[in-house]
TrEMBL record:
It catalyses: tRNA(Phe) + L-phenylalanine + ATP = L-phenylalanyl-tRNA(Phe) + AMP + diphosphate + H(+). The lineage of its organism: Bacteria, Pseudomonadati, Bacteroidota, Chitinophagia, Chitinophagales. GO terms for biological process: phenylalanyl-tRNA aminoacylation. Binds 2 magnesium ions per tetramer. This is Phenylalanine--tRNA ligase alpha subunit.
């Protein structure tokens, strides 16, 4: 009994001498002395070894020891709060705040939003559709015969056969869904991600992003198509950029044309990007094929229209001089930080 009382006195001296410089030290005190496995619990556990005739006297000693420890803990807490308040009161609130990293949109989203903004000024609405498509909306409705290369298993990711479900190869499927639900006049752009089974390299990827446009109304001509695209190019790349159209072929348009712009890298003098031609292809376009209109019960004798489609990656590459398509999907922070100012 005497030895235990002496031990308690020693503990009191230890507790009384304890000093805490911060909240962490106060918490350390609580755990060491008042915690579930702390010193106070251990000492009070000695009650079972005290003779019955001394339990009352020893209980008073234990309670006094517990209260002493709790008061010391409360004192340490109050001291820490006062120190913290004094620090706050003495703080110079006129100092500049801590800097923090500013996020940014992905470069593809920056370009996508800019393209959408340009065409919205021309009255185009935005239409979106599913990335998993059926055969009809992706191919059949767009006048793509069954033996067209885009239907080949080497080019298209098929999810199911009979019925055929696939990852869309172009956002023309969105145009199909718009024509299915809406009658002319129709004026929409269709941005979105598409998929093709291609070898991943600096110039190609198994997925990429497109923006396609569709305008159907009475008396729509190829001249309307050209002027629309002229406006887009000048707004996106500047007034000094030159444009040319080349005859081409697409199953869903007739006549069809590829559109090139003068190379922004070399100014039309010739470089590796434009393959020393001075021109870079940015989109395909043409007048909507009458059969496509008829597939959706649109009178091709009354209505005409034009359509166009471009890869957002290609436009982004020209705008920001990006030489590797893989950079878009590698999530390299060093690459993405370059676009912080382009919010």
């Amino acid at each position: 009994m005497e030895a235990l009382l002496q031990q308690i006195e020693n503990y009191k001296k230890e507790i009384n001498a304890y000093e805490a410089a911060n909240a962490e030290a106060v918490e350390t005190f609580r755990i060491k002395y008042l915690g579930t496995k702390g010193l106070v619990k251990t000492v009070m556990g000695e009650m079972k070894n005290v003779p019955n005739e001394q339990k009352k006297q020893f209980g008073l000693v234990l309670n006094e020891f517990k209260l002493f420890t709790e008061e010391k803990f409360a004192s340490l807490q109050a001291q820490t709060i006062n120190d913290k308040q004094e620090t706050i009161n003495n703080f110079d609130w006129s100092l500049p705040g801590d800097s923090f990293a500013v996020g940014t949109r992905h470069p593809l989203m920056i370009v996508r939003n800019e393209i959408v903004s340009i065409f919205k000024r021309l009255g185009f609405a935005v239409a979106e559709g599913p990335e998993i498509e059926d055969d009809w909306h992706n191919f059949g409705a767009m006048n793509l015969p069954e033996d067209h290369p885009a239907r080949d298993m080497q080019d298209t990711f098929y999810i199911n056969q009979n019925p055929a479900w696939l990852l869309r190869t172009h956002t023309s499927s969105v145009q199909a869904r718009v024509m299915e639900k809406q009658k002319p006049p129709i004026r929409v752009i269709c941005p979105g991600r598409v998929y093709r089974n291609e070898t991943i390299s600096a110039r190609a990827h198994c997925f990429f992003h497109q923006v396609e446009g569709l305008y159907i109304d009475e008396n729509v001509s190829f001249a309307d198509l050209k002027q629309t695209l002229y406006f887009f190019v000048q707004e996106m790349f500047g007034k000094e950029v030159k444009v040319r159209f080349r005859p081409s072929y697409f199953p869903f348009t007739e006549p069809s044309a590829e559109m090139d712009i003068s190379c922004l890298i070399c100014g039309g003098d010739g470089c590796n990007v434009c393959k020393h031609t001075g021109w870079v292809e940015i989109l395909g376009s043409g007048m909507v094929h009458p059969k496509v209109l008829e597939n959706f019960n649109i009178d091709s004798n009354k209505y005409t229209g034009f359509a166009f489609g471009m890869g957002i990656e290609r436009v982004c590459q020209l705008k920001y001089r990006i030489n590797d398509l893989r950079l878009y999907s590698q999530n390299d922070v060093r690459f993405l930080k370059q676009f912080t100012s382009a919010l």
